[in-house]
Amino acid sequence: MANRAEIASRIFRTAHELGIETVAIYSDPDYELPYVREATLALRIPGQYPRDTYLNIEAIMEAIERSGADAVHPGYGFLSENAKFASAIESAGVTFIGPSSDTIRTMGSKTEAKALMQDAYVPTLPQVVIDKDSEVDVETLSRLPYPLLVKAAYGGGGRGMRILTSPSEALSLIRAAQREALSSFGDPLVFVEPYIERPRHIEVQIFGDRFGDIAHLFERECSLQRRYQKIIEESPSPLLNQEQRTSLLETAVRAGKAVSYVGAGTVEFIFSPDGAFYFLEMNTRLQVEHPITEMVTGLDLVKEQFRIAQGEPLSKEIREAAQRGWAIEARIYAEDPLDNYTPQAGQLRDFSFDIDTVRVDSGFESNTSVSSFYDAMLAKVIAFADTREQAASKLELALRRAQIAGVPTNTSLIRAILKEEEFLRGDIDTAYLLRHTPATLIETLQLDTDDMNLYLSALVLYVSNKRSKRRTSLHEIPFAWRNVYNSDLSERVSVGDKEFLVSYGFRPKLAVKVDEREIRDPKIDCLDEHYVRFEGNGRLYNFWIHENGDGTYIVNGPAGSVNARISDRFPSTQRQEHRGSLLAPMPGTVVEVYVLANDKVLAGDPLLSLEAMKMQHVITAPNDGVVTEIRVKSGDQVGLKDLLVVLDESSND
Amino acid sequence: MIRNKAAIERDQIISSFDPQSEAAITNRKKIMELLERYNQLVAEAAAGGGERYVSRHKKRGKLLARERLELLLDPDSPFLELSPIAAYGTNFHIGGSIITGIGVVSDVECVVICHEPTVRGGSMNPYTLRKNLRALEIARVNRLPVINLVESGGADLPTQADLFVPAGQIFRDLTRLSGLGIPTISIVFGNSTAGGAYVPGMSDYTVMVDRGAKVFLGGPPLVKMATGEESNDEELGGAEMHSRTSGLSDFFARNEIDAIRIGREIVYDLNWRKLGPGPSVRSDDPMYDQDELLAIAPYDLKQPVDPHEVIARVADGSRFHEYKATYGTSLVTGWASIHGYPVGILANARGVIFNEEAKKATEFIMIANQSDTPLIFIQNTTGYMVGKNYEQAGIIKDGAKMINAVTNSTVPHITLIIGASYGAGNYGMCGRAYDPRFLFMWPNAKVAVMGPQQLAGVMSIVARESAASLNKPFDEEADAANRKAIEDQIERESEAFFMSGKVYDDGIIDPRDTRIVLGMALSAVHSQTVSGRKGYGVFRM
Asked: Do you know which Pfam families this protein is assigned to (chain A) (predicted)?
């Protein structure tokens, strides 16, 4: 398995079902992930960075040899669509579970693939290719109507992609796209094509065998994206009528035939609002979102991949597959949707789902760490039901009841989308999350006051209970016992930008108030380390409470989760940061420092760039000033909120 | 190590108390009324100097005494306030303008002494002094670190005659504690002048709040009078000056909250270790409802109380291994544990102490000293038996044995008065004069040389005899009125509230809190070594 985490676990499951032994490779940060344990053999590839580990063909080839593996599954991402890797495997006499290296090469180049598709009468968009060395020919670009989209020729997942709205910014954005394309995909080749506004993104799962047979397994609707990355996918697509569907599926099969496709592949199309669709690219691998196809067809796509890799023709099941019911998949990312989806790292204090109602393909589990070296996707949660509406509410409920703590995720955002009207109407396109900001969406999940009061009461009592248990002195005495009642104890709790005062005391029975609103007959039972039963106002709520490790708590309850911070009793007076300090917005590696000490800078000037989770972030000056201190140099690893640069605003005149 | 006594069959008290009986219900009601009255007094004390002074204090950006206290204590930890209604029945503000108690700071049990600046500027009156000295004594005998939260205007000058001479003991006690290796910490929030300046002066650690602390022997007017020198508060005794120049302050605090934070850090760095063995047996709740103690506490002191019913609601698992159960049955003795601390219990059963009871108590105290076991005295006594038979049987000698044993016992004693405490019974059962580590009273308790009716009756008989010997006529009517007046006076002066006002106890407690309070007291005594007097064997009386 030339991959990691979620997809490795997924492949192992089917392999083991078929009695196939499995080999995992793991980088140093991945040592504790479940897939490493699940494999029948696990081999370490020392290092952290993808280029040293999961993109290191030499090391992986060596692992293949060491383990005696006779087939390699590449998963998705990493080397899954790397022709060099596929051909290295082919020449080693090992089976590559996927198409031939030639097909990968052809399809890997979006430019080449488009040319081929044009020949097969598959509709495509016009394009201009920009070679890495050639100067960008703005003249040529002007043949295309703005806005334009620049994309990495060998890319995917939105990386190396930029929208060009005017010729003036074209050059710098193309350069940025090239840089990202190089760092992400190893090739700076990019191309420019017309940008379709409010496009929809629908793809078709196809399978081909070595006998030239191609079949489709219906479509997947993938329009719901953030930063060009899918976060919610579904099958069928709510946007297609039967006629469109038939035409789309036929076109996909034609595309597959044009390259004599073998194995599992995906033909991606872009739909313009007028209903016209164009070939976008072909993914020569198993897609992240393959489970929704599995749910609606009842097939195990990995099993079919194995069959075809073993030289079998397309199975009867594939050829006769039907689309039944509705499946929706949500991708759970470790990211902060309210902070521009900044990837998050840290230890997952809890990570569990109610797997009785939904399918969960996860790469992580409680007490594993999310590192900043790889993609931040933690798991996929897939709900299947008779109708779209049912699937959406089922998924929302499952996410509401999920126990995720320690690392911020996009779970709330997804829950909000699943309840949002436009989404429920099926009115989605790739600009959905530009129309609806994460902040406004998440706002809709806000608890009503009654629920919030119960949540916060439970949290504060839980914390005080834990605190009492840690105390060794007089721990036998009921907590906060007084023979002279002074005042209730109180904690200031903030949720987002709102602050609540939760006070509690024994007079002599437990009494709890939130902002002067008394909770009727409160009762708390801390049943285990994280599980709390709280009774109040005649309601019984079960809560799972976790400390996130940064002083905040996540309270998971029947109405969803609340992230709360309890203010310190003694505000720290020592850790006052200098004014003008610029802190790392996320953990990552310093790519380049653009300024020197004593440089005068203007607001907006780039100071340094930081790479994290394969994305580059430029730290710019928030105001005019003089750089008084530089704490990092290129290549440094920085943690969240580490001091990078100090800017003195006063000394600039 | 917690010994698992569950493996051993222990005697368990089987309660025969009926909380639903009419008497029980009536009694409960009466006790609740007393508690209500008591709680009003406590609330009055807790309110400090009243609305006007409280708001003035707050306007200065200062924390109230009780806010300082709550912030100092570990969140959610218990606090046992001592003598909350000191000065009750006097002209001074109830509470004695000082708060003292035992609480947990940085996971260390400490004595906290906190001036109440909203009551006459936190100045000290004779009751403040008693309460302060008692708190220091508790710290000394139980080896508990002391934290002073200082803001006091000094002596209440009109009462200086009752104050000046004995008040010197505060400084002596502070430094004596230091000499015993018991840490003393002062956090100075405000005035701490003249004599008061020696509180930080005599403490091991001193924290001063910027622009709050004023620590000097003489303020600007006094200095001007004495030497003609012009000066201001900050120069003479500000936190900045004492932290930078005089060195009296070890820690400069930016504000009150910061000062409390520093105080907590100081305690953390004491690396404190208790010397007692600590709890050593299973600590489980009693089998019976502690709430029923309200119905058991005798409102009418003539009604005897079976102490088993009290122990059954206080001891771990209601377990009680009785010693000499069939001998001297008016005093119940035996072994139990409270919050896991093994204890010996002596409890009056029918008020009177006869010869056998006195001898039984003596033996029991001696064996508790052999096994280093703390003793709990549960008082409900009308005293030693009088009468020919008893005098001739040597009740004085037997009573003397018991008093000797109590006096020379060195295991910690904790006394709880649940009803009557009359006559030498008060002494033999370790009354205040016998230095119990702690002494608490239920609100219905009465303490006097004898019961009000008996006392009035005795006085009446003496008067009648005196009249007879002088051959004077005896005025029956005047005697009745006189008897009534004496009875009322004694009644009033013997009540728990009055005694507590005089700081003759460490506080009145709600009977329902008995187990908690004894548990906290036992935990405190275990801060010191727990060891009995050795030398002689146990005399069989």
From this structure: Biotin_carb_C (PF02785), Biotin_carb_N (PF00289), Biotin_lipoyl (PF00364), CPSase_L_D2 (PF02786)
Tell me the nearest-neighbour CA distance from A360 into chain B, angstroms: 41
Residues B61-268: name the CATH superfamily.
2-enoyl-CoA Hydratase; Chain A, domain 1 (3.90.226.10)
pLDDT bucket at A109, cuts 50 / 70 / 90: confident
Read off the pLDDT of residues A587-609 as tens digits, 9 standing for 90 and up. 788 888 888 888 888 888 888 88
Question: Which residues in chain B are contacts of A571 at CB distance < 8 A?
Answer: 257
DSSP A501-526: EEEEEESSSEEEEETTEEESS-EEEE
pLDDT band at residue A577, thresholds of 50, 70 and 90?
very low
- Give B62's contacts (C-beta < 8 A, 6+ positions apart): B117, B151, B189, B190, B212, B256
List pLDDT tens digits, range B382-420: 999 999 999 999 999 999 999 999 999 999 999 999 999
Q: Can you give the three-state secondary structure of A371-404, one letter per residue?
A: CCCCCCEEEEEEEEECCHHHHHHHHHHHHHCCEE
Tokens for B192? 């701490």
At residue A190, the pLDDT reads 87
Helix (H) or strand (E) holding B540: none
CB-based contacts of B157, cutoff 8 Å, min separation 6: none
Task: Provide the pLDDT for residue A576.
Answer: 42
Q: What is the pLDDT of residue A652?
A: 41
- Among residues A193, A185, A216, the alpha carbon closest in space to that of A293 is found at A216
- CATH class of the region A5-97: alpha beta
Residue A368 DSSP label: P
What is the DSSP secondary structure assignment for residue B214, as one 8-state letter?
B
- Those residues whose C-beta lies under 8 Å from the C-beta of residue B387, and which sit 6 or more positions away, are none
The C-alpha of A481 sits at a distance from chain B's nearest C-alpha, in angstroms, of 4
| Chain A interface includes B257 (CB < 8 A) | yes
Contact A366, A350 (CB under 8 A): yes
Q: Does domain A581-648 have CATH number 3.90.700.10?
A: no
Contact list in B for residue A489 (CB cut-off 8 A) is: 70, 75-76
Q: What is the mean pLDDT of residues B302-329?
A: 95
Cβ separation B69–A486 shorter than 8 A: yes
Q: What is the ipTM of this complex?
A: 0.91
| Chain B nearest C-alpha distance from A390 (Å) | 46
Query: Domain residue spans in chain A?
Result: 5-97, 126-194, 205-443, 449-566, 581-648
User: What one-letter code names the amino acid at B442?
Assistant: W
- Over residues A303-317, the pLDDT tens digits come to 999 999 999 999 999
Torsions phi, psi of B20, nearest 5? Answer: -90, -5
CB atoms within 10 A of CB A651: 12
Q: What positions of A carry a catalytic annotation?
A: 285
Q: B80, A508: Cβ pair inside 8 Å?
A: no
**Which residues contact residue B537 at a Cβ distance below 8 angstroms, ignoring those fewer than 6 apart?**
none
Boundaries of every domain in chain B: 15-46+285-445+508-531, 61-268, 451-494
**Residue B283 at interface with chain A, using a CB cutoff of 8 Å:** yes
Residue B69 with chain A: CB contacts under 8 Å: 486
CB contact under 8 A, B513 and A483: yes
Domain A126-194 has CATH 3.40.718.10: no
Peptide bond into B452 cis (omega under 30): no
B15-46+285-445+508-531 is classed in which CATH architecture? Alpha-Beta Complex (3.90)
Is B513–A573 a contact, with Cβ atoms under 8 angstroms apart? Answer: no
| CATH number for the domain whose boundaries are A449-566 | 3.30.700.30
Instruction: List all residues 6 or more positions away from B278 whose beta carbon is below 8 Å from its beta carbon.
Output: B341, B526
The reply to whether CATH 3.40.50.970 applies to domain A205-443 is no
The CA distance from B427 to B404, in Å, is 10
